[in-house]
Each structure stands twice: as C-alpha cells, then as structure tokens.
Amino acid sequence: MTYPVARPRRLRRTPALRRLVAETRLHAADLVLPMFVKDELTEPVPLTSMPGVLQHTRDSLRRAAAEAVAAGVGGLMVFGIPARRDAVGTAATDPDGILNVALADLAAEVGGDTVLMADLCLDEFTDHGHCGVLAADGSVDNDATLLRYRDMALAQAAAGADLVGTSGMMDGQVAAVRDALDGAGHLDTGVFAYAAKYASAFYGPFREAVDSALQGDRRTYQQDPANRRESAREVALDVAEGADLVMVKPAMSYLDVLSDTVAAVDVPVAAYQVSGEYAMISAAAERGWIDRDRAITESLLGIRRAGAQIVLTYWATEVATRLQAEGAA
Ligand code: PBG
C-alpha cells in the first residue's frame, strides 16, 4: 500500500475548514437588484415567467427598494414601463416619464444609501420595441439613436441616477452619453456600460416584465452568441469611450467572456444574471428537480468565480437577506 502524497480531501473535512479555504464569497454589497416600475399601475403585478418578481407601482417600488437597501444590497437598476409608447420613445426623455419620476422617488427614498442605476435603452419606450429609433427602411438608425440616448442620459442624471446603464448596443453610445453628461455639468454621473451584450434567448421573460412590443429580434445590434473575441473589441471600445464600469450579459452562458473581460480591463466588471437564467432555476426548483437555494448560490458563486466583481440578479434582496441572517454579509 502506498499512501497518496496529496490529500485535497483534508481541507474539505469540516464546514470550518471549507469556510476557511473558500476562494469566493458572496457579499450583499456586490449584488445589484434590477427592478421594474410601470406607469399608471395601481397594484403591483406578479410576473408569471419570473416567480417572485413584480412590475411595481411607484409606491411598491419605493418599499421594495428600501427593503433591498436594508438587506445591504449594493445597488438598484431600474427599468421603466410607460403607459404609452411611440416611435421615438418620448416617455424615456420626459422628466415626468415613469422611469425618471421613479428614479427621483428612489433618490429621495434611498439615494444616499445605495447606488442608483437606470437602464438607458429605448426598447421599453418605443412602440416597435427596438432599442433605438428606426430609419426609413426599418433598420435601427445608430446615430439618430445616439441623439435620443444623450437626452435620456440627461433626464436620468437630472432625476438622480448615480450611473446610467447604456444597454442598447449602439456604436459610440458610451462616448455620446459621456459627452452629453459632461456638457450639461453632470460630471459625476457615471456610465455603467453593458459592453458585451449578446442577442440572447435568455431575455425571454424580460419581454413579459416590460410588456415588450418587439417583433423580430435584435441581431443587427446585439452580439452573436458564437463570438468571443468580438467582446474584447466591444469592451475595449466602451472603456476607451469613458465607461466607468463594464458589464457582460447574460452571465451563465458567457463566463468565458466574463473571464476575458476581467483580465483585459482595469475598471470594475459586472455580470447580469438575466431573466431567463432566473426563470430556468425557478422553474426547475418548482418542479422539485433541483434544490432552489443551492442552485441560486452556486450560480452566483460561478459568476463571481469567473471574475465578476458585481452581479445583477433578481435574487439580490433574497440572497442579501440570507447572507445577513448567516452573519456573512
Ligand atoms: C434593454 C435590456 C434588456 C435586458 C436588460 N436591458 C432586454 C434586451 O436587450 O432585449 C434584459 C434583462 C433580462 O433579461 O433580465 N433594455
């Protein structure tokens, strides 16, 4: 009998040993909660494809935000659903538009205690559901869209957003938004760039969450899931244009891209565990096919282990609350 020279199992023997040698930990402060607020809503509406997630009223949004902040969540990412849509997404730039008033509500309610972020994209606001305005031939007009993004950034900054989340995948959007913000004196409003963002099937439930009107798809502006090196280019462009943080999205199917991004840049890197990732785990857990809490934790650890410093997840409040209870937050 020869004895194994190395016994990795030694360090796995007790919970205390495993805790000591854990390489990755979850912290509430690293989690960001995406939230939906809908105009002219009187009661919050539960989303069937995202059990536990709501379309909020302005009031319920405030309460849910306060709850998230009390649990120690690091930031909030707000999405607005207007009552009326048009071709250019007027409600996105209207100071009285739902997203902007909701940001102002949250700035007043929890502003000093958390990082307030806004999705900067037109798809929730346009009647055709695309992330930009359309040219005469029906294609998404990149540069005309940049003008709308500039105004949208100004409205969100004025409403109190700390960071604007450029998520439309138009070329030059970070530079355009940075220039608009600086020109209006919003020097301290940061750009949280959805830098590597794929045309993903995992956004499916999000379409319900924002009552999306989209026909067709976003493949002429979001990235092809087949591509890895292309993300390096997208990320480098966003950083060169002035992105303060960059994001990879979705998360779980793009951990290679995430890992590449972390190695390539010196700004903070986030990953977005999107609606379909949430829905998959929720649905399998509902059927008793996987252990819900363990699967949630493992998915978030995987995203953190791949290098994301910040994770956007619809479970942010729940996980933060659990961490608080465990005394690990
Ligand atoms: C664009 C945006 C989308 C998501 C976040 N920002 C939709 C899309 O790009 O099609 C998806 C988020 C999710 O699925 O959880 N406004």
Descriptive overview:
This protein has a single domain, classed as TIM Barrel (Alpha-Beta Barrel), CATH 3.20.20.70. It has 12 helices and 10 strands. The chain has helices at 15-21, 58-70, 90-93, 98-110, 142-159, 173-183, 204-209, 229-240, 255-264, 275-286, 292-305, 316-326, and strands at residues 31-38, 45-46, 54-56, 75-81, 115-120, 163-166, 190-197, 245-249, 269-272, 310-312. Strands 1-4-5-6-7-8-9-10 form an 8-stranded parallel barrel, surrounded by 8 helices. β5, α5 (142-159) and β6 form a beta-alpha-beta unit. The structure holds ligand PBG. Ligand PBG binds at residues 119, 121, 123-124, 167, 203, 206, 218, 274-275.
Q: Helical segment tally?
A: 12
The profile of the biggest β sheet is: 8 strands, parallel, barrel
CATH architecture: Alpha-Beta Barrel
Which stretches of 5+ consecutive residues score pLDDT under 50? none
Per CATH, the superfamily is Aldolase class I
Mean pLDDT value: 97
In CATH terms, what is the fold-level topology? TIM Barrel
CATH class reads: Alpha Beta
> What is the CA–CA distance across the termini?
46 Å
Portion of residues within helices: 25-40%
- Ligands in the structure? ligand PBG
Provide the structure class. Answer: alpha/beta
